[in-house]
Amino acid sequence: MCAITMSRLVFSVLLVLAGSAQAKPWQGIRPGQSGALDVIGKFGEPTKKTEVKGQVVLLYSGLQAITGTVQTQFKLSPGGDTVARIDVYPAPVIDLAAVETSYGGRCDAKKPVEPCYFVKEAQGQKPYFVYLKLGLAVFFKDDGKTVSSFAFLPEKS
Angle 96-103/3-18 helices, nearest 10 degrees? Predict the structure, then answer.
């Protein structure tokens, strides 16, 4: 596959994953606003409905994986009626450069450009990117350059 075709494919997948240009809903589902019924209405019954650490999770994988993903998890708020977070595990390989091109580069205190990301490091975990104003976190595989998953969260002001 030629480089231009591959770049177009990656860009197209990123557009599908990204949602709109402002806050980052995914496939029309907006964390903090959309409900479980919105998810089921859009994607059908989940492959599995489970509870993790007291939180209901609607899981779409295998034959029910949403186009462009190998798995998607819709984590519901404690009441179980609102989507609190969406974790998307993309099917295509998406690298660090594609993330920065699509969402913005690292935040620079000297000349801020929005949107931008901060690198977060939790003890015992790999560093990840947080786009605060977009409500987006990007997690990387062990190589630190290839996306493992995206987390769509309620946006921060």
Answer: 60
Q: Return d(Cα 156, Cα 83) in angstroms, integer.
A: 16
As a 3-state breakdown, the chain gives helix, strand, coil percent values, each rounded to 5, of 25, 35, 40
119, containing H or E segment: strand 118-120
Domain coordinates in residue numbering, the chain: 3-152
For the entire predicted model, the pTM comes to 0.79
The DSSP call for residue 146 is: B
Q: Where are the alpha helices (DSSP H) in 29-88?
A: 36-43
Q: Kindly list the distances between the CA atom of residue 102 and the CA atoms of 12, 19, 34, 38, 93, in Å, as whole numbers in the listed order.
A: 10, 12, 24, 27, 14
Q: In what order do the strands lie in the sheet with 69-76?
A: 48-52, 55-61, 69-76, 83-90, 147-152, 136-140, 128-131, 118-120
- Please determine, for residue 30, whether its predicted confidence score (pLDDT) is greater than 80: yes
Q: Report the distance separating Cα 84 and Cα 96, nearest Å.
A: 26
- Number of Cβ within 10 Å of residue 31's Cβ equals 23
Q: Kindly state the average pLDDT of the residues 2-31.
A: 54
Cβ contacts of 130 within 8 Å, gap of 6 or more: 117, 118, 119, 120, 136, 137
Instruction: List the structure tokens of 134.
Output: 């977009």
